[in-house]
Amino acid sequence: MKRTVTLFVILCVSSLSSSEDVVKRWADAVGGREKIAAIKSIYREATIEFGPYRGTLKVWHTADGKYRKEEQVATLSTVETFDGTTGYVQQGSEPPRRMTDAETQQTRSRRFANSNAMFFVFFPDRHRGAVKTEQDGTIVFVPEGGIEWRVTLDPQTSLPRTMVHKEGERTVTATFDSYEVVDGIKLEKELHRSAGNPGMTSVIHFTKTVINPPLDPSLFTKIDANPSNDKH
Fold it and tell me: Which residues contact 172 (CB under 8 A, 6 or more apart)?
């Protein structure tokens, strides 16, 4: 009986150590926990290709989970803000509205998509949720909000190769095609996002990144008529 208990404890410790090792490899590959811990905010611009349509994307994220997104594809435009508690959205020329409870719940998880996952996975004590590593090395994290994200690392670089989650009945896969180094931090340069339908694949190509820009707190709480001006 004592031998069985001892073996169980060894297996649990080994599993925990393995989980920490996988996350550490990812953190080291990105630039190291110390450098990531020094990031308070990130501003990024990108181009978007969605089938025959073209567009632009501007996003502001903070390490504590606030964000703003301004997206325009063809004639469609969306602005979203989230201050960590309350979110607002504006579609096209419609007036801004408060996110529904369901949208807010999704936002609590979706704010950690793509490279922003490092703010959750590397520092789980900062946020509510769970992080674990499966036997095949897949990192699974579930932030507050309930969406499960599954991250597969490239065996050569230890950087994310794919990140998969579900939106309703759809399985959404982000494939990281290339990376760039900004102030010593490796961030995705281009990614493909698909929902299982070849015609529904979007290509996001980042063209500008600023780490720790000065930000006005109102950036995450207000949607103005001309939101992009003087925000970073």
Answer: 164, 165, 166, 193, 194, 195
